[in-house]
Design brief:
Radius of gyration: 27 Å
Number of helices: 11
Number of strands: 13
Strand content: 5-15%
Number of domains: 2
Oligomer: single chain
Order of helices and strands: HHHEEEHHHEEHEEEEHEEEEHHH
Strand order of the largest sheet: 1-2-3-5-4
Distance between the termini: 97 Å
Amino acid sequence: MARGLNARGRPGRCGLRGRCRLGALLACAAWTAGWVLAAALLLRMHPGVLSERCTDEKSRRILAALCRDYLGGALGGDLCEDLCVAGRLRYQRCLYYERGKKVLQADWRGRPVVLKSKEEAFSSFPPLGLLDDQPEDEDSSRGFSEAELLPLVVGEVKSALGLELANGSLGHLGLGWPGPRLRGQLASLWALLQQEEFVLLSLLRGLSPHAPPVLGSCGHFYAVEHLAAGSPRHRALFPLDGVSQGGRGQARAVSGVALSFLDMVSHFDHDFSHRLHLCDIKPENFAIRNDFTVVAIDVDMAFFEPKMREILEQNCTRDEDCNFFDCFSKCDLQVHRCGAQRANSNLQVVCDKIFRHWFSSAPSSPAISLPLRLQLREAVQECAAPGTQAAAPRVFWKLRHLLQAALRELQEEDQ
């Protein structure tokens, strides 16, 4: 009997080696595809998994290189003297590195601040073309006028945020016209304009209590105030200094923070010429001031309406292709294009990713009466549910009313 045939003369299970080989290859391909998909999902949920290790040694080297460039006249900024000469801006620790971005904590004249840059090295940013034909002494750029630089700045703002400057002044970016060391100042200004978060925070300076102001810059690094970020590890998602864990104190703080989140959502939806979309809503990207005001401390993924429409309007074959982090659109299967209109909202994502933790879990604060807790849970679930855009204004005011009622109830119990 031929080898590889069974008793009835048919091929055995592996008699046809090609078929077995094909089956093994298919199984291997399926296994590999499964791991690739799992890795992609992991990176989608935790983009910092492959981030570079954050160390004090490397962070100090980065700032030392920054100061060498400053002392050599290649860059400038209003914080450079304090950082590189006077020692009034002192490095403290590395906060994180993520996809090239460097975020460091420092002390500036007794005030905790955060130094940020999208890239490690000043040379990583494209140079300002106006400087190409100029000699490299520090006074060589004195012939430049604001009128020459403004069209370039307008173009960068348009590219970063999809916005036109309100009028012909650099003051709207909070930058002003550079002073001494003009060549280094202009080169630094250009590097800062390549960083979307810097441009956005500069434009919001003085206009929003929910965004940290830019305090100054040196080269491609800019400084903002240091606020303790939230984390899923915190029982209340955010560090609430001076508030006791559990009980009425925490319930009062959580209700106050939730109201501030609603204020922020309304502010970003209605108080600017274009709606500001937050596409990466998670505790780590927000902080809480002592008065419970919510501050968006990481706005790398925040976009005004014109830029949001540009991002969303892409080719697609299904709705999932139209998801940009927390900002979703719908796929038009007739033309295979994502709609430019966002299908969900800041409010819906805040309810889903923040409020659910506080108000939808079974043991939510017993300091608030059971009927009110049940109403809050129901309102949050309605708010977080997909497809509630049409009902969003009603749900917003319902949540606001219930949170205010919770604060009144807690206040009455204290008296």
